[in-house]
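Feature request disguised as a bug: please show the residue count (234) next to ABC transporter in the output. Example input:
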Amino acid sequence: MSAPLLETRGLVAQYGDTGALFGVDLEAREAEIVALVGANGAGKTTLLRAVCGLLPVAPDQVRFDGAAVGGAPAHRLVALGMAMVPEGRRLFPSLSIEENLTLGGWSGRRGHWTLARVYELFPVLRERRTARPTTLSGGQQQMVAIGRALMANPRLLLCDEISLGLAPVVIRDVYAALGAIAAQGTTLLIVEQDVALAQRVASRLYCLRKGRVALSGASAALGRDDIRLAYFGM
Ligand code: ATP
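Example output, currently without the count:
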């Protein structure tokens, strides 16, 4: 088996004096979809932020393509091939859809993903390219957030709760796009509240509880009851 593209070893993170992650070991391989599940406050968002340089962590705690990159500045990690689709999308409201997408590419890498390819993946964005993000539906806004991250040509795409607040039919479309992105060779680490959905789309799953990995394994091998137990700790 190939070496993991992303590896965390004993990852710890804290906010001031309060710990949020207490030694998380996780790995994700090339073109794999890995899901993080867990209750509110379990540390899922913190893990994504620690991986992509938004929280101070020790170099050895995050390895990317074999290199120790923990705590490296976010812009350097983008240049190395990480991109994040943040919770709440964080689009630039005064810019057009196309400007939002184009901005995603400025500090990134050249590669498969261009504006044309993002529009192929999400044709509705081409139709709405001169519109402002606030005039789009929630699902379309999420597509812009994903497209903007793709414009950096990431090898690893971190997605935080992209299904939140979306209708089931829209969630299906967005996840179909994530499948296409992984098939193109990108590794995905996704935070997903809906455990059943996470199990369907991800090859492997990590369940966090109170900042620790309570359960991990191949999605197909994990039983609902095991996950429920790990999730709630009961
Ligand atoms: P959610 O589903 O609610 O987003 P989560 O699993 O993503 O939950 P985190 O947001 O990573 O959890 O939070 C982990 C812990 O860190 C929680 O106890 C939370 O209160 C705390 N925390 C998160 N962000 C901050 C912050 N900016 N300042 C202080 N504490 C924080």
